Amino acid sequence: MPKAEETYDFAIIGGGLFGVYSALYLAEQGCRVVLIEKEKQLMTKASIVNQARLHSGYHYPRSIATALMSDDNKARFTHDHQAFIHSSFEKYYGIDRYSSFTDGAQFERFCDFIGLSCKPIDQHPAIRMERLEALFLTEEYTFDPILIANYYRSRLGQNKFITLLTQTQLVQADSDSDRWIIQIRARDSDAEKTIQAHQVINATYANSNGVNRLFKLPDIPLMHEISEMAFVSSPQLQHIGLTIMDGQFASIMPYGLSGLLSLSSVAYTHHKVAHAPLPEFDCQNINTACQPNFPSICNRCFARPASNYKKMERQIELYLKEEVQLFYIGSMFTIKSKLKANHIDDGRPTEIAILGENPRFYCIFAGKINSIYEIEKVVLL
For the whole model, what pTM was predicted? Predict the structure, then answer.
């Protein structure tokens, strides 16, 4: 491998929110950081293609660990991102009368155990109660992913300790005593160069194992889904969010400060599933620029699945009164990944594994946005 041209304290692979926050945190500690992202722009995938729920823990009655982690970080995340938080709406959790994994009494006990506000509601002018065993008024907010992405892009550009390399592909990585030697290629010019870093953080989410393998490190046990987030408007639900628990149900709530509502469904949001370590899907045979070890942006892909919006709409309408109108605006798509161990309890913990020592290599597998701070507890400065 050619001689390294630049040396950094940390190389961070992946320009989603977890990678960007890690870069800013380390730079604030005086570390010299290079942030490497293969797309033209930061935070274009799962960082913005999500329901924008600022989790307090309500969503995980079968995963106490995820619920506690969500609640622990909520206050700090809300404080740090106050300008991008939408809190002035009513958020309801409904327990479906049929086939739910959790009943109303269990949900109340869970909320009491975690210390979450949970007020039983008998009637609501927009919500159909016949299909519900119980309805609860809760305290849960949303964040604005687009505004947060713009905010962090701006902060990165102002930080002299961070070198940002977009449209940059990893070619090869080797270790040399106390540092990583990394060969990279500019995707727009094919120009190659070699850098070195004393520590590496893999924050690529869906491509975690692809990057781990390039550094000759073990896989983490993942599964992957091509997922759709639908966006609607509704005069009757403008200041209301509703999540139906717990199982193959749906959720509709404000998408940050955009004025839109995000609509997702456990049954219909996820189109394709890959149980392999890498995100391998049949649509990659059509769009060959997207590969299991080099996934592209699904939202722009001509081979992405057809929308399931109509099915999502029919499902959520089971819980809405007839006068509630939904107007479909469009959908966004991305690859969502999760740890195989959480398939049973639907947990989404953030885990930071140390896969290599001397030199050190971290793999962040992100759960919920408000756990961006977990890197502070693990990283060795």
Answer: 0.92
